UniProtKB/TrEMBL annotation:
HAMAP family the UniProt entry points to: ATP_synth_b_bprime
Family indicated by similarity: Belongs to the ATPase B chain family.
Membrane-crossing segments per the record: 26-45
Function: F(1)F(0) ATP synthase produces ATP from ADP in the presence of a proton or sodium gradient. F-type ATPases consist of two structural domains, F(1) containing the extramembraneous catalytic core and F(0) containing the membrane proton channel, linked together by a central stalk and a peripheral stalk. During catalysis, ATP synthesis in the catalytic domain of F(1) is coupled via a rotary mechanism of the central stalk subunits to proton translocation. Component of the F(0) channel, it forms part of the peripheral stalk, linking F(1) to F(0).
InterPro entries, per the entry: ATP_synth_B-like_membr_sf (IPR028987), ATP_synth_b/b'su_bac/chlpt (IPR002146), ATP_synth_F0_bsu_bac (IPR005864), ATP_synthase_B_chain (IPR050059)
The encoding gene: atpF
The protein's name: ATP synthase subunit b
Organism: Microbacterium marmarense
Main location, first listed in the record: membrane
Keywords: ATP synthesis, Cell membrane, CF(0), Coiled coil, Hydrogen ion transport, Ion transport, Membrane, Transmembrane, Transmembrane helix, Transport
Location in or out of the cell: Cell membrane
Membrane topology value: Single-pass membrane protein
Amino acid sequence: MLNALVAYAAEEGEVTNPLIPAWYDIIWSTVCFVVILVIFWKVALPKMKALLDERGAAIEGNIAKADEAQRKAEAALEEYTAQLADARKEAGEIRDAAREDGKKILAEAKDSATAEASRLTSSAHAQIEAERQTAFVSLRSEVGTLALDLAGGVIGETLSDDAKAQAVVDRFLADLEASEAEKASK
């Protein structure tokens, strides 16, 4: 095809370079380029710049939001960690207080049990003493009656006078206690 162009140019008598366009092509190409450049400069470029600015602002806003969320998360984590430490400390204090209270309750229970045992022991001693006294009086009365009956049988008389009978019984029992005391001292 290059040969055909060279042949055509040789026929016309004008030798031109096939790589350089004609002057009217250059002018119209320049006019079209300037029109497209002006339209691009006035319409497309501002819209594109506005779109890029909007996206940049959105990205910066999202970055700021992400930074704020990160700060809040770190603050929440620190607060949670502090609360957890406080809760552990409080649990330790409660556990120690419970141990101390347990020791106090145990000591109070021991003291109370000791006091109750002491009271029961003294109550039992008092009851035993009261029963001993009752038995002693009852025994004395029975021994007195038996002694009077025996003495009445030996003497041959009945000792019906209560004052006399009581005096005889008291003397007999006193003699009996004195003889037992002598035996115990020997």
